Amino acid sequence: MSLIRVKNIEKTYHVGTVETKVLKGVSLEIQKGEFVAIMGPSGSGKSTLMNLMGFLDSPTAGEYYFDSIKVEDFDEEALAEIRNKKIGFVFQQFYLLPKLSALDNVKLPMIYAHTSSAEQDQKALKSLEAVGLGERVHHKPNELSGGQQQRVSIARALVNEPKVIFADEPTGNLDTKSGEEVMKIFCELNKQGKTIIMVTHDPEVAEYTDRIIVIKDGLVLEDKINKHKK
User: Fold this and answer.
1) Quick check: 95 pLDDT over 80?
2) Fewer CB within 10 Å, N or C, the chain?
3) What is the pTM of this model?
4) 93-105: b (≥16 Cβ within 10 Å) or e
C-alpha cells in the first residue's frame, strides 16, 4: 500500500517578475517500508520535492496523497499536526540547540505534541539508545562529534514514532566513517519497518537504499531498484 503518491506535481517560484519552474510534473509512489534515495544535480528539484512531500512547502499544481488522504483537504493546523506526529526530519545541518543536552534536544517534538514529562524522558531515552547514544544523554552538542550530533537529530526525528523519515543530505557534513555509521543506523531503522526517503548527491550513500529516483530539470529521469545495495 502506498504511503505517498504524487501525481503531476509542479512547483513554480516567483521572484519579482522572474518565474522559475522547479518541478515540471513529477509523478511517483512510495510504499510503506521502502528506503528510497532521491538523486540529481544541484538545482534539479530533489530538495523541493522532499519539502513538498514533507509538508514544508505546497505544490503549485498536481495532487499529493499521504497515507491515502488528499493533502489539499488539510488546513494548516492539520498539516502541522501531521508534520509533528507522522513525519521525522533529518537535515545536513543538525539544528540542535547548543544549551540543551542530547536528551532535551530529542524531547523537543514531544513538547509540541503535549506529551507528559515522564513519557518525554522515557521516549527520548529509548530513541537515543536506538542510535547508540544511551551513554551520552546528558552531553551538550559541543561535547559530541559531528556523527554523534547527527545521531541525536535522528533520535529526535524518531521520537514521535513517525510513519516516514525524510533525510536531506544527512551525511553531507560528516567524514566518511561517521557517514557510514549514520547510514547503518538508517538501514537498521528500515529493517524495523521505517519508511525512509533520503535526498543525496552521493552515489555511495545512495547504494544503501532499495530504490533510486533520479530527478533532472524538474522531472523524473530514472526510477530503478538498487541491485547493488550495500
Assistant:
1) yes
2) N
3) 0.93
4) ebebeeeebbbbb
